[in-house]
Design goal:
Length: 66
């Protein structure tokens, strides 16, 4: 009986972990896709894409994860 409980908890934990990973991976892939479209302007020290406005370089991480 204890084994079943431990097994069930492990499976529940593992599937919760898998869905967390899936979400993280989705966030990561979206950020990477955005990042690959970035242009950097060294004169203004910021980034932008063809679809978005200029973002100061210090805010790039926020921008990528939006
Ligand atoms: Zn510029």
């Amino acid at each position: 009986m204890a084994m079943f409980v431990i097994g069930g908890v492990t499976i529940a934990y593992a599937s919760a972990y898998a869905s967390t990973l899936k979400k993280k991976r989705f966030t990561y892939e979206k950020a990477i896709a955005k990042w690959s479209d970035l242009y950097f302007c060294s004169r203004c020290d910021g980034v932008f894409t063809a679809q978005s406005n200029f973002v100061p370089a210090g805010y790039m991480n926020n921008f990528l994860n939006q």
